[in-house]
Every structure is written in C-alpha cells, then in structure tokens.
Amino acid sequence: MSEQFDVVVIGAGPAGYHAAIRAAQLGLKTACIDAALGKDGKPALGGTCLRVGCIPSKALLDSSRQYWNLQHLFGEHGISADNAKIDVGTMVGRKDKIVKQFTGGIAMLFKANKVTPFYGFGTLHPGNIVKVKQHDGSEVELKGTNVIIAAGSDSIELPFAKFDGDKIVDNVGALDFTEVPKRLGVIGAGVIGLELGSVWKRLGAEVTILEALPDFLAVADAEVAKTAAKEFKKQGLEIKLGAKVSKAEVQKDGVHLTYNDGKADQQLVVDKLLVAVGRRAASKGLLAEGTGVKLNERGQIEVDEHCHTGVDGVWAVGDCVRGPMLAHKGFEEGIAVAELIAGLPGHVNFDTIPWVIYTEPEIAWVGQTEQQLKAEGTPYKTGSFPFAAIGRAVAMGEPAGFVKVIAHAETDRVLGLHLVGVGVSELVHEGVLTMEFKGSADDLARICHAHPTLSEAIHDAAMAVDKRAIHKAN
User: Fold this and answer.
1) Residue 166 is labelled as binding a ligand
2) Which residues bind NAD(+) (predicted)?
C-alpha cells in the first residue's frame, strides 16, 4: 500500500528542496526523497551544491585566499607575518563543519514546513508511484498526485581517467586532499577546474590546467576572459589551451598524462589529477519502464517551458533538465513548479540568470555577450570602466578588472552586464535587476551610487555607454 502525497519530490538538492518547501508552504502534503549520505554516514540533504559543490568550494576558496593575501597582499598594508603555514586538516575541517551546518539546516526547514523526508534512492514508476529503496535495504512506496524530479547531476568521467578517489578525482576528491599536492593537473578550464585549481595554487601547488578548446572561457565575454586569463597567469596558474588529453596512467611517481597541443603529443606528470570536464544529468536508474517520461540524447529529462514532462502530474527541474547547471536556476525552477501545481503563476526568465566564477578576480555576467549579439546581428553599444580607477578598489589593493555594460543601440535597453574583478559576484545583480525591469543604460547611469564603493564601476560603465563617463576619457 502506497502512502499518498500531493507532491513527491525526488532529490533534495537546490531545485528539490526549494520545490518541497514551497509546495508545503502552499498547503500541499509533501514528501522529499534523497539518497545522499554525509561523511559521518548519516543522511545529508542539500545535494551536490551543499555537500560537495558550491558551499564547500567557497569555504576552501576563502581559506586559500586569506593565505594567499597574507603572503602577497598584506605587505602593501604594512602587515608582516613570518613563516606563514596552512594546516590543510584544519581548513578541510572548517569546510566540513560549514557543510554539516547547512545540510542540517535543510533538515530543520523540512521539519518546520512539515515536509516528510525519505532517505534512499527513488525510482519513478507508472501512475506517479515512487518506490524508495532505503539505506537499510527496505523499500517504501509513495504515490504523488504530482511528482517533481530533481535528481541533479554527476561528474563526467573520462574512459581513460577513471576516478579512484586518490590520484584521479572529481570535485568531491579535490575538496578533501589531506595535504597540498606538489603538482596538480586539471583537465578542463571550466568553473570547477578554475575554482579548485585556484584553491590549491594559492596554497602552494604547481597547477597545470589542460583545456581541449582553443579559446579560454568561450562562454564569457571575450574581453572579460582575456583579462581573467592575464590575471591567472600573473598568479602562476598555467592554462594550456587546445590541449587534448588522451591518456592518464597512475604510476609510482604520479599520474602520467599524454596530451596533444595541436602539434605533437606532450607528456606531463602530476601528483593528483582533477577531472573537471563537465557534469551530466543523474538520470540513471531514475525511471522504471512505462512511465512515459522521455530522456534526450544527453540523458536529460525532456520538459516544456514550464518544466512539465508531458506525463500528467510529472515535472522535472534543476540539473537533470535543459538549461544551465546552476544552483540558483534550480532554486527558481523548483519554486515555479510548486506554484504552478498550486494553481499560481510560475515562471523562470532564463535571459536574466546570472553566472559567477569565484576565482580571484571573480568573473560574473548576465545577459548576452558581444560575440552573441554580433552573431545574431543585434545593434548594440557598450560602455566599460576599470576598477583601477575606482577609489574603493584601489584602497582595497584589488585594482584588477573592469565592468562592461551592453545596451541596445536604438532603445538603450540593457542587454548584458559583464564583470571581472573583486566582489563582482555581488555586483552582477544590478544588471539582473535592471534587465528584469526592462531598464536602460541611462537608467543605470542616473541611479545614485554611494561613494566610495565598488558599485561605482557599474555607474561609470553605464555613463560610458553614451560617452559621458566622468572618471575616464571617452
């Protein structure tokens, strides 16, 4: 006999737990299923993001940044410290404590909102039946008037570089090194490769990132990518583009890599290898025969613009469906679906989803790049402003980078905001808000920004769109 719910959510990552909590807030009897266990072997809600992704990586990024600044930046302030050391065990322990705090926080939110959690692996069967294989081997059966699939994603494994949890790792392993590797190899110069490569570089590792594509961060604005690459090079982060890895062999002295640089095969030996070539939808074992839910060629669940699968009462959100694999995209989809189920309007605007890479300097953007606008023939104009001319940035000793505002050449409507520099993960939301409210570059230029702040770079960049910036030659 199955237990009946209004909503059954499969997955308690960002998309799933938002969907579950919002559904419960709207008076729907809600269950949420999750299979993940923490380091202590106990259930740990929050998905990849909270356990082994966004949150723990930011904890290590912050720790490593403090250590790097102590050695490279504090001297400018007249602060000296001899024989600075990093205790990796303490740093990782701090990260684990933060993770436990937040995963426990989700459990408390479930309790407060009367969401019923089930711990185990959920499989969807025909008729909106979800069977949950629990960790003790027992099985429970749930029936949902609505089922929301929020299964998340897994790291992509290369056939010649299988994860062993020691020498060859994914993001999970790279968050838990017990000591700083002397030589760290990274396959993939995407978000994960750059962020975790930065962590261990700041702590003293020799880091080499091998990227198969010929362009660095092709998804970002070309000028932003160029500036970021220059700063990473200054930091000693070696990034080899057009480097296609074909072999990774674990030997006594390390992992032996073979890659082609476009001219000939090259060799590289590293102590640890992080494979960060992307993620794929975690759809394996998720769907029993006959559900009617379809997967595309990438293993993602097919959905319409409202995240509905086409099967009555079955929805899917987050990393296991189309669109960017970003936690905040999953947040919004989960909430939107819960509201649609409750008969309310629910919508996610993909055009205003911000992107952030938490390197040093940070990289962030929202909207279209110049490359995209050129390709589609949209007339546009731009204005940019460097942080080197912003008093607050210089006073902080963080002058690298700039802000670029892109507006439609005829209507002046903001089409994109692209930033590289200190704190831009927070500043990018000025662009999100402006675009959501259909604002213009002139609107941004006429909004009073406090002085001295980093946000003035956005103000000046917006003024520069019409060549009226005060603090730079137009």
Assistant:
1) no
2) 188-195, 211, 278
Q: CA 425 to CA 415: how far, in whole Å?
A: 18
CB 387 within 8 A of CB 401: yes
Write out the H or E segment, with its range, that includes residue 443: helix 441-446
Q: In CATH, what number is assigned to the domain containing residue 133?
A: 3.50.50.60
**pLDDT tens over the chain, length 474 residues:** 789 999 999 999 999 999 999 999 999 999 999 999 999 999 999 999 999 999 999 999 999 999 999 999 999 999 998 889 999 999 999 999 999 999 999 999 999 999 999 999 999 999 999 999 999 999 999 999 999 999 999 999 999 999 999 999 999 999 999 999 999 999 999 999 999 999 999 999 999 999 999 999 999 999 999 999 999 999 999 999 999 999 999 999 999 999 999 999 999 999 999 999 999 999 999 999 999 999 999 999 999 999 999 999 999 999 999 999 999 999 999 999 999 999 999 999 999 999 999 999 999 999 999 999 999 999 999 999 999 999 999 999 999 999 999 999 999 999 999 999 999 999 999 999 999 999 999 999 999 999 999 999 999 999 999 999 999 887
122 is an annotated ligand-binding site residue: yes
The Cα angle at residue 270 between residues 268 and 273, in degrees rounded to 5 = 110
Name the active-site residue from 135, 256, 451, 471: 451
Specify whether 214 is located in the same domain as 272: yes
Residue numbers of the domain that contains 246: 168-277
Q: Verify that 356 and 454 share a domain, yes or no.
A: yes
Active site residue 308: no
Rounded distance between C-alpha atoms, residue 71 and residue 81, angstroms:
8
Q: Is 278 annotated as a binding residue?
A: yes
- CA 220/CA 457 separation, integer angstroms: 19
Q: How many domains does the chain have?
A: 3
